[in-house]
């Protein structure tokens, strides 16, 4: 069976749970809830395996904190013998309007420290990433407070529909490939 590693970036700890920076964790929690499944704490993260249409999707929430996510990703890629082509990283993006979804085959870290660490650990930018727009609605010098801040009431109302799109896009990535998934879900 073909395996995929789907990584949601975030920070561990209850104080970070519902923050904008934890969109990767929240998206994977939504999928787990959909399957009535629970993550299991393992080495370097919480892991859940889902089988879907002849594919194995290993969902990973690294326990290394955002800025050291690459260590957990490298470990799980090697442990499960998953190629870089089958890696998808879900992360927040300040440069996209709230709720905008954008998948890319490769790219820069865009100033995101989690992506910087992944690039350093994997020694490449050649992996798929799925960015969730959190907007840049903050005053100058308040970026950290914003990304580590909680969602607004209006944003909270829109999250379930966005999570459903992420859920669909993850399985499209595994079943149809990155190109078709980008064409189907980007900016939707």
Automatic annotation (TrEMBL):
<feature type="active site" description="Proton acceptor">
    <location>
        <position position="21"/>
    </location>
</feature>
<protein>
    <recommendedName>
        <fullName>Peptidyl-tRNA hydrolase</fullName>
        <ecNumber>3.1.1.29</ecNumber>
    </recommendedName>
</protein>
<keyword id="KW-0963">Cytoplasm</keyword>
<feature type="binding site">
    <location>
        <position position="113"/>
    </location>
    <ligand>
        <name>tRNA</name>
    </ligand>
</feature>
<feature type="binding site">
    <location>
        <position position="65"/>
    </location>
    <ligand>
        <name>tRNA</name>
    </ligand>
</feature>
<feature type="site" description="Discriminates between blocked and unblocked aminoacyl-tRNA">
    <location>
        <position position="11"/>
    </location>
</feature>
<feature type="site" description="Stabilizes the basic form of H active site to accept a proton">
    <location>
        <position position="92"/>
    </location>
</feature>
<dbReference type="InterPro" id="IPR018171">
    <property type="entry name" value="Pept_tRNA_hydro_CS"/>
</dbReference>
<dbReference type="GO" id="GO:0005737">
    <property type="term" value="C:cytoplasm"/>
</dbReference>
<dbReference type="InterPro" id="IPR036416">
    <property type="entry name" value="Pept_tRNA_hydro_sf"/>
</dbReference>
<dbReference type="Pfam" id="PF01195">
    <property type="entry name" value="Pept_tRNA_hydro"/>
</dbReference>
<keyword id="KW-0694">RNA-binding</keyword>
<dbReference type="GO" id="GO:0000049">
    <property type="term" value="F:tRNA binding"/>
</dbReference>
<comment type="similarity">
    <text>Belongs to the PTH family.</text>
</comment>
<dbReference type="GO" id="GO:0004045">
    <property type="term" value="F:peptidyl-tRNA hydrolase activity"/>
</dbReference>
<dbReference type="GO" id="GO:0072344">
    <property type="term" value="P:rescue of stalled ribosome"/>
</dbReference>
<keyword id="KW-0378">Hydrolase</keyword>
<comment type="subunit">
    <text>Monomer.</text>
</comment>
<comment type="function">
    <text>Hydrolyzes ribosome-free peptidyl-tRNAs (with 1 or more amino acids incorporated), which drop off the ribosome during protein synthesis, or as a result of ribosome stalling.</text>
</comment>
<feature type="binding site">
    <location>
        <position position="67"/>
    </location>
    <ligand>
        <name>tRNA</name>
    </ligand>
</feature>
<dbReference type="GO" id="GO:0006515">
    <property type="term" value="P:protein quality control for misfolded or incompletely synthesized proteins"/>
</dbReference>
<feature type="binding site">
    <location>
        <position position="16"/>
    </location>
    <ligand>
        <name>tRNA</name>
    </ligand>
</feature>
<comment type="function">
    <text>Catalyzes the release of premature peptidyl moieties from peptidyl-tRNA molecules trapped in stalled 50S ribosomal subunits, and thus maintains levels of free tRNAs and 50S ribosomes.</text>
</comment>
<dbReference type="InterPro" id="IPR001328">
    <property type="entry name" value="Pept_tRNA_hydro"/>
</dbReference>
<keyword id="KW-0820">tRNA-binding</keyword>
